[in-house]
Amino acid sequence: MTTMQDIIGYLAAILTTASFLPQAILTIKTKDTKSLSLSMYALFTLGVLFWLIYGLSIADKAIIFANSITLILAATILSIKIYNILCNKG
Amino acid sequence: MTTMQDIIGYLAAILTTASFLPQAILTIKTKDTKSLSLSMYALFTLGVLFWLIYGLSIADKAIIFANSITLILAATILSIKIYNILCNKG
């Protein structure tokens, strides 16, 4: 049976995962990363990679699925940020 | 016994939680939010709030602790972004 607790958990996971999509779209479109923190995206991308490894190690499909998507989005944003720093665009 | 799996899980949680600290510091210092997505921070803050409610409902101290910190950091960034939009600073 799906409880209210489960629904809140699913909603939480969907919202925090989906949230990185509009940021990735904005960053890809504008290429502007001046107000994005390099440390944030470096730590966050590494953290999501660990979540993915954790999900794989306990074979939890929800953790694997959510963190695979977030990893792609976060790594994309991080790559544009690093590119901009290397090209002195901030 | 703490397993390798547990350590990866803890590392993942610490990294994804801590990552919002440098972003919050940068945003508070510079007040620049031009390249931050409003949709991202709106969805993310709501998602973290749901994680907190979920953690409270299953009485999981780790989920409550991590998401309380992230909620404060994400809500701070979101507030500055909304303030900037209202003041036409982007």
Describe the largest sheet of chain A.
Answer: none
CATH architecture of chain A: Up-down Bundle
Number of separate strands of chain A: 0
Which ranges of chain A are low-confidence, i.e. pLDDT below 50, for 5 or more consecutive residues?
none
Overall pLDDT of chain A: 94
* N- and C-termini, Cα separation of chain A: 50 Å
Kindly state the percentage of residues in helix of chain A.
over 70%
Number of domains of chain A: 1
Largest binding interface between chains: A-B, 42 and 42 residues
Strand residue percentage of chain A: under 5%
Number of helices of chain A: 4
- The radius of gyration computed from the alpha-carbon positions of chain A, rounded to a whole number of angstroms, is 15 Å
Category from helices, strands and their pairing of chain A? mainly alpha
Oligomer category: homodimer
CATH class group of chain A? Mainly Alpha
Query: Any idea of the CATH topology of chain A?
Result: Monooxygenase
